[in-house]
């Protein structure tokens, strides 16, 4: 291995490779002694492009080559042959893309793929292997989405996982992303406007995780209570919900299997977070911290003693509630009780308000302190916030809506009823908008012809509620309340196809676009897998 540098002030178009690792494995990264031996340092100046010497912006390695980004384009460097190491007497450098890379961003490599920001900062380029050319070739990743990068790009990072996402930090502080699947030639752009006043992203980074998808970390600046407040936030993972078939126990058990499924869904709904700058109160944390089990003295009644295996109770717990939630895997269990007296750190007296299923010890993590006062929100002081309690929308953070208005005061909020898991944060709006629909007509393309959408079907995955329409000012809600929903809980998420009524008018000729818009306004999950549109086109003579 060698240390390779380039683009110095005195020799901006030259690369410098240190001496190679010695026979004993000792590195010689600081030794730039030249020579003709294979392990000696090497130096190479790029050939002029367009009549002038090139200035090197970056150098990065991919699986088979070293790629050099310069003002005049991208070059690939290798030894005299493919998979041959570079030596002082064996080096081949050739231009593979005529568009150069900007100075303030390091390209992102992913195997044989490479992404870099083109000169000017408003377009993203990619390099990939072409079997036709038997070489790396350049292509425009921004094709069809130039408006998303038009504000300029100053940094890019790659988040790998089930879906690989290339995240781009724009010059105006907004965040853009590209979901990429090179095997299927899929590239999907999306833009992210963060919640809050004057919210802008300052920096982005990806933290690899050994046992799950990479994490995206961002530094954000917002105006909170009249002052700039900086925070470091992590993009949460999507919650994976089970299928009803996972709870099948027999042909005659449909009712009990469905209840177990709904219990498991309810337990998982506490985990999703669709808020910015979110803070979470989790009533199980106190018990989890000391691995305390909780044993009820009875399954029903008043004046019942509950015993913890470790010291967890405090004098101030009087009035709080103890909840048992169903096991995620089996969907079995539950119960609720109000604390009326604290005997000591291990024992409390409760009145049971919802019968427990058994008197067995409840493992840590399956029982909760439900509370109605949530503190630790100083980073949201004086902000109107959205609140989600045990998966249900308590407040949407919008003034004058159907939900109560909640404003953080002295770093805390008060709920009208206790909750076991509470997420508090800034709301944002998610909008999916198709391009101008083109299905054609009898006489050819329909871009400039009057069109009318006659029916619409959308396949959702783990969706709670959203709105749809043909523009953001005329929307219709999509709400699916499953039969047998358990009272006092949020509706379970819905997966499947919804055939939806669609009120549309014929578009005028040559002037109006025809689009489908889906909006997620509440802090709930909404994943759209496909949109099936049928419409009529007026074909003129």
How is the secondary structure organized here?
Elements: E1 4-6, E2 14-17, E3 42-45, E4 56-61, E5 66-70, E6 73-78, E7 92-97, E8 108-110, E9 113-117, E10 124-130, E11 135-140, H1 146-149, E12 153-159, E13 164-170, E14 175-181, E15 186-192, E16 200-207, E17 215-224, E18 227-234, H2 254-269, E19 276-282, H3 285-289, E20 294-296, E21 304-308, E22 321-324, E23 335-344, E24 347-354, E25 367-374, E26 386-389, E27 392-396, E28 413-419, E29 421-426, E30 430-433, E31 451-463, E32 465-471, E33 474-479, E34 494-500, E35 517-520, E36 527-537
Antiparallel strand pairs: 1-2, 2-3, 4-5, 5-6, 6-7, 8-9, 9-10, 10-11, 12-13, 13-14, 14-15, 16-17, 17-18, 19-29, 20-21, 21-24, 22-23, 22-25, 23-24, 25-28, 26-27, 26-29, 30-35, 31-34, 31-36, 32-33, 32-35
Key descriptive features of the protein:
541 residues; mainly beta; seven-stranded antiparallel β-sheet; four-stranded antiparallel β-sheet; 3 helices; 36 strands; 42% strand; globular
């Amino acid at each position: 291995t060698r240390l390779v540098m380039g683009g110095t002030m005195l020799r901006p178009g030259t690369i410098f490779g240190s001496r190679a690792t010695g026979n004993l494995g000792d590195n010689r990264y600081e030794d730039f002694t030249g020579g003709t031996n294979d392990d000696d340092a090497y130096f190479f100046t790029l050939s002029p492009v367009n009549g002038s010497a090139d200035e090197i912006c970056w150098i990065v390695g991919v699986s088979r080559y070293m790629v050099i980004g310069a003002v005049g384009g991208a070059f690939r460097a290798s030894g005299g042959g493919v998979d041959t190491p570079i030596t002082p007497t064996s080096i081949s450098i050739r231009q593979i893309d005529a568009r150069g890379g900007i100075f303030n961003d390091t390209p992102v490599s992913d195997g044989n793929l490479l992404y870099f920001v083109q000169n000017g900062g408003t377009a993203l380029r990619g390099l990939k292997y072409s079997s036709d050319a038997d070489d790396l070739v350049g292509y425009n990743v921004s094709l069809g989405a130039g408006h998303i990068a038009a504000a300029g790009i100053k940094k890019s990072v790659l988040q790998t996982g089930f879906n690989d996402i290339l995240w781009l930090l724009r010059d105006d502080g907004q965040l853009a992303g590209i979901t990429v699947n090179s095997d299927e030639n899929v590239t999907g752009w999306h833009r992210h406007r963060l919640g809050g006043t004057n919210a802008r992203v300052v920096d982005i980074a990806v933290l690899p995780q050994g046992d799950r998808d990479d994490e995206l970390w961002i530094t954000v600046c917002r105006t909170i209570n009249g002052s700039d407040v900086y925070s470091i936030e992590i993009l949460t993972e999507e919650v994976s919900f089970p299928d009803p078939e996972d709870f099948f126990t027999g042909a005659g058990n449909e009712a009990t299997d469905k209840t177990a499924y709904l219990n498991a869904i309810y337990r998982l709904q506490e985990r999703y977070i669709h808020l910015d700058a979110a803070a979470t109160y989790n009533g199980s944390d106190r018990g989890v911290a000391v691995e305390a089990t909780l044993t009820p003295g009875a399954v029903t009644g008043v004046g019942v003693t509950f015993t913890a295996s470790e010291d967890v109770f405090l004098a101030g717990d009087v009035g709080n509630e103890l909840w048992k939630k169903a096991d995620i895997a089996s969907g079995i269990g539950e119960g609720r009780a109000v604390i009326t007296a604290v005997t000591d750190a291990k024992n409390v007296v409760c009145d049971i308000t919802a019968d427990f299923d058994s008197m067995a010890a409840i493992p840590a993590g399956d029982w909760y302190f439900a509370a109605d006062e949530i503190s630790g929100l100083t980073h949201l002081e004086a902000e109107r916030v959205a609140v989600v309690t045990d998966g249900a929308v308590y407040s949407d953070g919008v003034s004058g809506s159907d939900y109560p208005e909640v404003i953080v005061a002295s770093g805390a909020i008060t709920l009208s009823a206790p909750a076991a898991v509470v997420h508090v944060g800034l709301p944002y709006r998610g909008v999916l908008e198709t391009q101008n629909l083109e299905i054609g007509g009898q006489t050819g393309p329909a871009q400039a012809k009057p069109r009318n959408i006659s029916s619409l079907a959308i396949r959702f995955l783990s969706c709670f509620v959203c709105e749809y329409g043909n523009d953001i000012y005329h929307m219709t809600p999509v709400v699916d309340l499953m039969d047998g929903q358990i009272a006092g809980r949020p509706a379970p998420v819905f997966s499947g196809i919804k055939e939806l009524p669609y009120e549309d008018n014929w578009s005028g000729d040559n002037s109006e676009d025809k689009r489908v818009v889906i909006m997620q306004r509440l802090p709930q999950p909404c994943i759209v897998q496909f949109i099936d549109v049928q419409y009529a086109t007026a074909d003129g003579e």
